[in-house]
Design a protein that fits this description.
Layout lengths: L1 H25 E4 L2 E2 L2 E2 L4 E4 L2 E3 L2 H7 L3 E5 L4 E5 L2 E8 L2 E3 L1 E3 L1 E13 L5 E9 L5 E8 L7 E4 L3 E5 L3 E11 L6 E11 L3
Parallel strand pairs: 10-17
Antiparallel strand pairs: 1-4, 2-3, 4-5, 6-7, 8-9, 8-11, 11-14, 11-15, 12-13, 12-16, 16-17
InterPro entries: Cu_amine_oxidase-like_N, Mao_N_sf
Keywords: Signal
Protein name: Copper amine oxidase
Length: 190
């Protein structure tokens, strides 16, 4: 009786192990690169189709993902956001290290295909320290609008890349999503 149980168990384990080896042989892991940066989670190639982690890809591309549980579908929104930084009436894209005077961020937003609750702008220095600049609730859900921050003082203390980020928060959500990022290079005075 004991021998019979062991034989059945070994047969089942052999079938299961063979299935796992076969399944592993039919799938291949795929490395995912976006703008030269390898993503933490890769994809899978299965029967000639590539499957990728949607949320990670969307975040890397500056898109918003909303899950519709009732219909079991993922909805992807990719608004267009163009940001310009101004010192007075002069736009700039690079600076010398140090104080730049009062600056503001002008954002032009279009192709908004979902209801927004609010937007915000931040700046991150080369060491990774992020500073909040301004946020605003969105009261008119047009598919295009402008958002201009108040003037603020900012000192580019270090040389390197500063990241100005534009975030959106969807209605009925607490999560902020980065939908645009602008790089400002600060260099030594020369």
């Amino acid at each position: 009786m004991k021998f019979r149980k062991i034989a059945i168990m070994l047969t089942l384990l052999s079938i299961w192990g063979g299935t796992m080896i076969f399944a592993d042989a039919t799938t291949q892991k795929v490395r995912v690169m976006i703008n030269g940066t390898e993503q933490d989670e890769g994809g899978v190639l299965l029967e000639g189709k590539t499957y990728l982690p949607l949320r990670q890809i969307a975040e890397a591309m500056g898109a918003i993902v909303r899950w519709d549980d009732n219909n079991k579908r993922a909805i992807l929104y990719k608004p267009n956001v163009h940001m310009f930084l101004y010192n007075g009436s002069q736009p700039f894209g690079g600076v010398n290290k140090g104080y730049q005077g009062k600056i503001k961020v002008f954002s032009q937003i279009d192709n908004v295909k979902t209801d927004l609750a609010s937007v915000k702008v931040t700046i991150e220095d080369p060491s990774g320290k992020e500073r909040f600049i301004q946020s605003e609730n969105v009261t008119n859900n047009n598919d295009s609008f402008w958002f201009i921050t108040d003037e603020f003082d900012y000192k580019f203390d270090a040389t390197g890349k500063y990241k100005v980020r534009f975030y959106m928060r969807l209605s009925n959500s607490e999560d902020w999503v980065v939908v645009s990022e602008k790089l400002i290079t600060s260099s030594s005075k020369g």
